Amino acid sequence: MESTRQQKIARLIQKDLSDIFLVYARQSGGGVLISVSEVRVSPDLGVANVYLSIFPDARQKEMMDRIEADLHSIRGKLGTLERHQLRIIPELRFFADETIQKMEHIDELLKH
User: Residue 55: pLDDT above 90?
Assistant: First the structure.
């Protein structure tokens, strides 16, 4: 169970990363939407697991690879935004959120 502090930091990181990815998606080529669906912070506040929804699905792997390559600069931008709230910026780990694809698959199965 997450503590109140973990939840507050997760919401702060989610908001700031959403702003960062809004600009990032525009710069990396049109037609891509990146949303931060969930952030989970470890109990020691040292690691943040970030779940991203990327639309369209066809560009998901390409964008995840690009985000992993730019991890250092994304963490730096996050540090700039949160320098007054957090003493240490957590290590970021990005994962593709496949909830929508799973829901569509279940929907398709239920139709038949």
Answer: no
